[in-house]
Amino acid sequence: MNMDFRLVQEQSMKLVMTQQLRQAITMLQYSGQELHEYLYEQQLENPLLEVQEAPAYSMRRGSSDVGPLDFTAAAGETLYDSLLSQLRIMHTDPAVYEAAVRFIHCLDESGRCSLSLEEAASETETDPRLLEQAAAVVQQMEPAGVGAFSISECLLLQLQRREEVDPLAERLLDTYTEMLAARQFEEIAEEEGVEREDILASLELIQTLDPSPGESADPVLPHYVTPDVRAEKAGGSWKVYLCRDAIPQLRVNENYARLLQQEDSEVQQYLKKKQEQFAWIQRSIAQRQDTILRVAEAVVRHQEQMLEHGMGSARRLTLKMVAEELDMHESTVSRAAGNKYVETPGGVFELKTFFQSGVAAGNSDAAAAQIKFLMQRIFDEEEKTAPLSDQKVAEKLAYDHDIQISRRTAAKYREEIHVLSSSKRKERK
Fold first, then answer.
1. What number of H helices and E strands is found in the chain?
2. What domains does the chain contain, in order, with CATH numbers?
3. Cβ(35)–Cβ(249) under 8 Å?
4. Is the whole model's pTM more than 0.70, yes or no?
5. How far apart are CA 211 and CA 154, in angstroms?
6. 262-280 pLDDT, tens digit each
7. Is 404:398 a contact under the CB 8 Å cutoff?
8. Angle (nearest 5°) at CA 423 between 422 and 424
9. What is the Cα–Cα distance from 366 to 398, expressed in whole angstroms?
């Protein structure tokens, strides 16, 4: 066996990820709120750095000069809080009361119990008969439908609360849920001895009910964001500007800056290091803002129609397309667009909203959102007794809008907008 040891010198290039480079990448990824928090942390560590808030952001952080809507979240009450409050004022047996408290904690966000009665009894270590009484108590509470063990029972509870009784609608929910899903209206009408129009009228009533009453009961806490950029149309073209208020101003603490002139070498060495960190943070923020602005400008250039006419006019736009246009890495574009917001005449949107997957479409690119919008319109306008198959929908998109998609893609998009297949959409004359 020949073992030969040699010293070989070779030259190679590789990227060394320094701490500063890693932090610069992280700063680009930060949302506006996260960047604020990061700068306040740096202020505690660096005596030379002072963070000066923009007036608009200072008001949001803690000023008493705010409107009543700023306090809406604090007044919110969860579904569980509401049910427990109602339970306290109901006259129930102590054992049923205790079982009801346990049952309430078995409910999911929709307000229903996804477990069977036996499973819930086992989960809560409660006698099934006692838990059944407790469930009946909870089902009397608001919102109507809460405490049900299934969607059909949830809707049935809501029907029973209505002033106008519809026995046929109740029977449909109690007996014919699978046939309703399969749109077997003729068969149901024959079994019930009624007209098909009566079935459709009761179905229309059922469709006004809420299968997830708990979600409407739980408050949605407002999520406040500060736009990073602003897009507006001026002189016939779209312009993009940085929102200066989104980033606090950094300034040097003069008291500590004067210490740099002292002869104490140890103090000078410490402060010079902090001065270099301060300068690096300023450069990183400037680079972050420049990258966000460039990405936002490219996005707006591609999605002008979407800004003017809504999601139905969105074009296909991917991170890769913007990265190639700006000569950036795709991951850089992703970090610049993530958790960043753009203020437009139509509202404030996350920048990533404007990135749309899609397909090549004739002489242009069609975003998935645009295709789904057009498909929904096709389904709304089709003849209900002769609904279009997925292949026919694909052909109609190609003929009417020059959008080429396969039958499989049409089926995928149809399912994503919650439209049944043509066989299940068909209504008999």
1. 22, 8
2. 79-217 (no CATH), 358-425 (1.10.10.60)
3. no
4. no
5. 6
6. 766 788 888 889 999 999 9
7. yes
8. 90
9. 11
